[in-house]
């Protein structure tokens, strides 16, 4: 499709999208949707695509399999094209006499859009990642990530790449710790000393992020579970309405009742429930570690006594159904008045980590049109992100309007395969 961009603008576009591709720190690290986000199909589906959640199954030890052929429950989660990052700018004829004005503004635009994509992924992990590690010390490096590695292993998250995103201050502390070591290979220690690069640690590929989310200290105290009955989640792939219509069910979240003595619960709060321990997802053996949960939404009560949405759901196989056994994630009996202990006691930046299967990026595709006085250029990065530059002239002011934009979705397929480390807690 012909477009009315001059040679200088095309060169600027090529240089800018190359810089954009270099800045896709997390977009390159997470899983990309293996389905093409067909624009027409996505629009008719309200931009929602249901994605397969990783299977969890349990092996048996019987030679005779008679009576053991049970159905497998396939769970799915909605991935929504709901993120748009754009930067509009207007340049006058006078300003465009200097071609560098457009170049400089475009470089800033793609930096801002790249940062928006990275922060969207970071925020999703930081708010929904349910494997929570509470540290009373500042970041040190190996011990922190080794503990995260152990927690994922204990949950049965194996045979996949693991990634940790580290904010500048934590990265500095970790690089400092590595640079002072005398027993590591010279190259790795020297790199940490000269370039503040820490590389792979404790099974994690580490990424130096310019930003991670800050989590506020909890304010709620005296929090207990209101009603244990009915709080045991039973996974199901679909639900059927009274009219007979069948729809998918998102099994990542559950609503529970809580009593709060003072203060309020907030989205992002991390907590444990008395006597509820995490299990290995295939052997179903207790890890000996209290299961950690996140508050994902306030349903009623404004954060005080009422109901909250949590992730992951409490699946302790209380009903002994096939689906409950398949997706059992904890053990221990729920009790009325069970104490809920909040973990985020001090405000601060968190360190997100994840199994690459847990996080998925869904690149969208914006329609291209060179009609109505608008001209567009489009580029698709190696990670599948589609970035578009639109241009339109204003005859009244003899200025030119430009818009850089992209369209995408971010989803956490399994909140139990990612988490955060809290530092300097009490």
Describe the protein:
By secondary structure, the protein is α+β, with helices and mostly antiparallel strands. It has helices at 7-22, 39-44, 100-128, 142-155, 168-179, 186-195, 322-327, and strands at 31-32, 48-52, 76-80, 83-92, 131-134, 162-166, 200-201, 204-208, 214-215, 221-225, 238-240, 246-248, 254-262, 270-279, 286-300, 306-311, 330-331, 340-342, 348-355, 359-363, 374-380, 386-394, 399-412, 418-422. Mean pLDDT is 88; it is low at 192-196.
Helix and strand arrangement:
Elements: H1 7-22, E1 31-32, H2 39-44, E2 48-52, E3 76-80, E4 83-92, H3 100-128, E5 131-134, H4 142-155, E6 162-166, H5 168-179, H6 186-195, E7 200-201, E8 204-208, E9 214-215, E10 221-225, E11 238-240, E12 246-248, E13 254-262, E14 270-279, E15 286-300, E16 306-311, H7 322-327, E17 330-331, E18 340-342, E19 348-355, E20 359-363, E21 374-380, E22 386-394, E23 399-412, E24 418-422
Parallel strand pairs: 1-20, 5-24, 6-8
Antiparallel strand pairs: 2-3, 4-23, 6-19, 7-8, 9-19, 10-13, 11-12, 13-16, 14-15, 14-17, 14-18, 15-16, 19-24, 20-23, 21-22, 22-23
């Amino acid at each position: 499709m012909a477009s009315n961009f001059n040679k200088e603008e095309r060169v600027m576009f090529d240089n800018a999208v190359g810089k954009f591709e270099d800045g896709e720190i997390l977009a390159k690290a997470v899983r990309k949707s293996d389905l093409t986000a067909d624009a027409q199909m996505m629009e008719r589906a309200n931009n929602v695509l249901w994605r397969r959640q990783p299977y969890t199954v349990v092996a048996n030890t019987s030679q005779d399999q008679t009576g053991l052929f049970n159905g497998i429950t396939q769970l799915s989660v909605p991935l929504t094209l709901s993120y748009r990052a754009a930067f509009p700018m207007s340049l006058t004829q006078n300003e465009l006499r200097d071609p560098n004005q457009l170049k400089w503004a475009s470089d800033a635009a793609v930096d801002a859009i790249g940062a928006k994509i990275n922060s969207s992924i970071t925020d999703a992990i930081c708010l929904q990642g349910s494997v929570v590690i509470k540290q009373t010390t500042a970041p040190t490096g190996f011990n922190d990530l080794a503990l995260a590695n152990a927690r994922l292993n204990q949950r049965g998250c194996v045979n996949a790449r693991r990634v940790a995103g580290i904010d500048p201050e934590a990265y500095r502390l970790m690089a400092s710790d590595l640079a002072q070591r005398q027993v590591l290979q010279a190259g790795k220690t020297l790199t940490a000393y000269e370039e503040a690069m820490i590389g792979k640690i404790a099974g994690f590929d580490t990424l130096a992020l310019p930003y991670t989310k800050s989590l506020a200290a909890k304010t709620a105290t005296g929090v207990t579970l209101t009603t244990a009955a009915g709080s045991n989640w039973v996974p199901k792939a679909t639900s059927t309405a009274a009219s007979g219509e069948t729809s998918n069910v998102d099994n990542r979240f559950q609503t529970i009742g809580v009593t709060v003595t003072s203060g309020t619960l907030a989205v992002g709060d991390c907590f444990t429930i008395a006597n509820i321990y995490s299990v290995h997802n295939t052997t179903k053996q207790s890890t000996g570690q209290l299961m950690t949960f996140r508050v994902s939404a306030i349903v009623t009560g404004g954060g005080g006594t009422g109901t909250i949405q949590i992730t992951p759901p409490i699946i302790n196989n209380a009903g002994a159904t096939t689906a409950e056994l398949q997706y059992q994630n904890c053990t221990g009996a729920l009790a009325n008045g069970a104490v809920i202990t909040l973990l985020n006691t001090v405000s601060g930046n968190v360190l997100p980590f994840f199994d690459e299967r847990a996080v998925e990026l869904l690149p969208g595709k914006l329609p291209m049109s060179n009609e109505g006085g608008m001209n567009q250029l489009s580029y698709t990065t190696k990670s599948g992100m589609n970035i578009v530059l639109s241009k339109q002239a204003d005859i009244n002011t003899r200025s030119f309007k430009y818009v850089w934009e992209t369209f995408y979705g971010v989803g956490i397929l399994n909140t139990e395969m990612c988490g955060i480390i809290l530092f300097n807690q009490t």
